[in-house]
Write a structure and sequence with these properties.
Length: 443
């Protein structure tokens, strides 16, 4: 019997291997050309900033894999031969598979800018990008970041930690304008500027200028400005890393096309994580490129591969991040531009660094989503409230139940309730004392 072969040792590929191992004795092979062992990709910035060593980002000791009978192959897959159920390897011999799971992740988006191949122009997705960035640092004084997403802020913080001058170009008229409502976008924008970043809105990259020796020396914007720099960070999103599958016979669009069971058009071939694209998904993005969705997809595919046939159910959308010193949590559905069938309540602290947004349906005032900045609200509690159909008023009354800031942090819920009652005097709310409603582990 040929093995289960997984291409990619990121969160999706490794979670799948571990879950299948728990439930079966299948022979498992995990292939990666990025790193011999699994590491935490979200921790890349902390390696660069000196907070962690690389070994500290590996969740498992190197001996763990052999002990659990998971074979690791440090090599690159150049092509998939579906007729012979075989992988063409760059260094090693062709590798046969019984079942194949493509979990090869994504790559940074480049859009054909003149000069984008110069030394000093790169994205930030994986370990190789981090190594390139480290090599460049001695020659960099001024950096330009292009694109206004989460990776852009992380890269800005990394560069500032090395005392580099950073200019940040954002296409929209406020930060991350396709995701955040204007108020939250402006809050994050202020935080970026306060940390010393030259943040410029309504600016797009036109071209990158070389120094005649193959290195970047400036960028030009579409408005005609020239900005001298020795480094250009491209953070304009990522796309599935599927170039090696082009002539494989596996159906591709933006990503590897799969159904709700993660099956491709080819028998015994599956795809999960950043590289997978759902064919007929009705709710949310067709390509889900988040850490937690990659893990969840792997868990559900593992169940399918070990005899428990179930379709993918993502559940309530959630995400979290950190913008310099401000933590961000979002649960449920919060659109960047309020819809006509929605009610939005927004509160912001006078210091401009903490906020809460609740979104409800206009017809019945039922909670559908929330954003929080600078205040910690428990995911499990808000997920329960959204699933249970609590109204905005019921949510506001119970806000203290969800707060999990450390013990001596100030609580702002009384001010939030006052603001809510001013905004909706016909639906007054009284804040309840904190209670503990969720069960303990094992209860």
């Amino acid at each position: 019997m040929q093995p289960l072969v997984i291409i990619g040792n990121g969160i999706s590929g490794v979670t799948l291997a571990l879950e299948v191992r728990k439930q079966s004795d299948l022979e498992i092979v995990v292939i990666s050309s990025e790193s011999p062992h699994f590491y935490s990709r979200p921790a890349l910035m902390y390696i660069f900033m000196g907070h962690l060593g690389f070994d500290q980002t590996k969740p498992y000791e190197d001996w763990f894999w052999q002990k659990n009978r998971i074979q690791l192959v440090y090599d690159h897959v150049d092509a998939v031969d579906i007729a012979n159920q075989s992988l063409l390897m760059r260094r090693g011999q062709p590798l046969k598979y019984g079942q194949l799971v493509i979990a090869c992740g994504a790559k940074s988006n480049f859009f054909g800018w003149p000069g984008q191949d110069l030394q000093g122009v790169q994205g930030l997705y994986g370990l190789e990008d981090l190594k390139k960035l480290e090599t460049l640092m001695p020659s960099v004084q001024n950096a330009v970041i292009v694109g206004g997403g989460l990776i852009g802020v992380e890269l800005a913080e990394m560069l500032l930690s090395r005392r580099k001058s950073v200019t940040f170009l954002v296409r929209e008229n406020h930060y991350w304008g396709n995701v955040l409502p204007r108020e939250e976008a402006e809050l994050v924008g202020r935080e970026i500027v306060q940390h010393g970043v030259d943040l410029r809105f309504n600016q797009q990259l036109a071209s990158i200028e070389g120094d005649g020796k193959g290195c970047v020396q400036a960028i030009h914007t579409q408005s005609g400005e020239r900005i001298p720099c020795q480094f250009v960070g491209i953070t304009t999103g990522v796309s599935p890393n599927i170039g090696f599958l082009k002539d494989s016979g596996i159906d591709l669009a933006r990503g590897v096309l799969v159904n709700a069971f993660f099956e491709t058009n080819v028998p015994h071939v599956f795809a999960i994580g950043d590289c997978a694209e759902f064919r007929d998904k009705q709710d949310g993005p067709q390509v889900e490129q988040l850490w937690y969705t990659g893990k969840l997809q792997a868990e559900q595919l593992a169940a399918n591969l070990t005899g428990q046939k179930k379709t993918y159910q993502r559940g309530i959308w959630f995400n979290s991040a950190k913008f310099f010193d401000i933590e961000y949590h979002t649960y449920g559905r919060v659109s960047a531009f309020p819809q006509t069938d929605e009610i939005h309540f927004y509160w912001e602290h006078p210091d401009g660094r903490k906020s809460l947004r609740l979104v409800g349906r206009k017809n019945d005032r039922v909670l559908v989503g929330m954003n929080a900045f600078g205040i910690r609200y428990r995911h499990r509690v808000f997920e329960h409230w959204i699933q249970a159909g609590l109204t905005l008023e019921q949510t506001m009354a119970q806000l203290l139940d969800a707060n999990f800031d450390p013990e001596f942090f100030k609580r702002y819920e009384p001010q939030m309730v006052e603001a809510f009652n001013r905004a909706f005097p016909e639906h007054p709310v009284q804040l309840r004392r904190k209670t503990r409603w969720w069960p303990r582990k094992g209860a």
